[in-house]
UniProtKB/TrEMBL annotation:
One annotated GO biological process: DNA-templated transcription
Molecular function in Gene Ontology: DNA-binding transcription factor activity; sequence-specific DNA binding
Keyword GTP-binding: no
SUPFAM superfamilies documented for this protein: Periplasmic binding protein-like II, Winged helix' DNA-binding domain
Similarity remark: Belongs to the LysR transcriptional regulatory family.
Residues of the HTH lysR-type domain: 1-60
Keywords: DNA-binding, Transcription, Transcription regulation
InterPro entries: LysR-type_TF_proteobact-type (IPR058163), LysR_HTH_N (IPR000847), LysR_subst-bd (IPR005119), WH-like_DNA-bd_sf (IPR036388), WH_DNA-bd_sf (IPR036390)
UniProt source species: Aeromonas caviae
Protein name: Transcriptional regulator
Coiled coil: none
Length: 309
């Protein structure tokens, strides 16, 4: 039965949306994932469901027949969901969420804690980790990541927002080494590199309508953004930091922004969850809270100031 129903909701959404692109947006999947899902369904059924061109799509005769039967089945499912929803008057259960360490502590956890406070029946299990997480294997309801979502039929995604990056250094470092005014000068400076899974992450700026990559070089390499921030404040070199993390230190004068005239790369913030026909109420509400409150939280982060030793 599970194999029989697999792909039915995806197929129906494509028909109702009128295009693969619109269906992908509704389902929080990539267009490629939707196309692959339909192709798998066609292979299983042994028929072509859509006439496809580069500009349009339409149902084949077999596709139209199959869609009529799918509507009946989906209507029964919707009636069943409505019956269950009528009994869900309160939000309860355990919500298991994975998120990056520092970003999760400063930006995600406060929103989820506010959600739990508003719904006393909701229990939270929050995991702070920068490693890759297998949602199904580890039983996660939700994963928050600062990256593009993977192209997978097994995962659904929703864009929660984005954050930019800021190059900065301490006034003491700049007084000693001078302030870089072009990207070409960066190799002359000490740079504090960020390590993720053993790899140094590049710095990116847009210059003359092209993206320029800078590989940071210096004595210090760290896999913790908070440690990088404190090293920059202490005068060890230039640091490329998320704007939400750098802003409080810039406001306090502990750091100064550099190359502000050049647009830096912005990174998406996405919620990921196991794709399926039914999204639990606790997960749906958590995603909605994050989507509506994350921008404000990013602007209000106030990390503790540097304490000299």
């Amino acid at each position: 039965m599970a194999n029989t129903l697999n792909g039915i909701d995806l197929f129906a959404t494509v028909v109702e949306a009128g295009s693969f692109a619109q269906a992908a947006e509704r389902l929080h999947l990539t267009r490629s994932a939707v196309g692959k899902g339909v192709a798998r369904l066609e292979l299983r059924l042994g028929v072509q469901l859509f006439h496809r061109t580069t500009r349009s799509q339409s149902l084949t005769e077999e596709g139209a027949l199959f869609y009529r039967h799918c509507l009946r089945a989906l209507e029964e499912v919707r009636l069943g969901e409505a019956a269950l929803a009528s009994n869900k008057l309160t939000l309860n259960g355990r919500l298991k969420v994975s998120m990056p360490v520092l970003f999760g502590q400063q930006c995600v956890a406060p929103i989820l804690l506010a959600l739990a406070k508003a719904h006393p029946g909701l229990a939270l299990e929050l995991s702070f980790s920068d490693r890759k997480v297998d949602l199904v294997e580890e039983g996660m309801d939700l994963v928050i990541r600062n990256a593009e979502p993977p192209d997978s039929l097994d995962l659904a995604a929703r864009r929660l927002g984005e954050h930019g990056m800021t190059l900065c250094a301490s006034p003491a470092y700049l007084a000693e080494r001078g302030e870089p005014v072009t990207l070409a000068e960066l190799p002359e400076h000490e740079c504090i590199a960020y390590l993720r899974q053993g790899r140094v992450l590049s710095w990116w700026w847009q210059e003359a309508e092209a993206w320029r990559e800078v590989q940071p070089r210096g004595r210090l390499q760290m896999d913790d953004l908070n440690a990088i921030t404190q090293a920059a404040i202490a005068g060890f070199g230039l640091a490329w930091l998320p704007t939400w993390l750098a802003r409080p230190h810039l406001e306090r004068g502990e750091l100064r922004e550099l190359l502000a005239r050049l647009p830096g790369r912005r990174y998406p913030i996405n919620a990921l969850w196991p794709h399926g026909p039914h999204l639990p109420l606790k997960t749906r509400l958590a995603i909605d809270w994050l989507a509506s409150r994350l921008s404000e939280q990013l602007a209000s982060v106030n990390v503790p100031g540097h304490q000299p030793q």
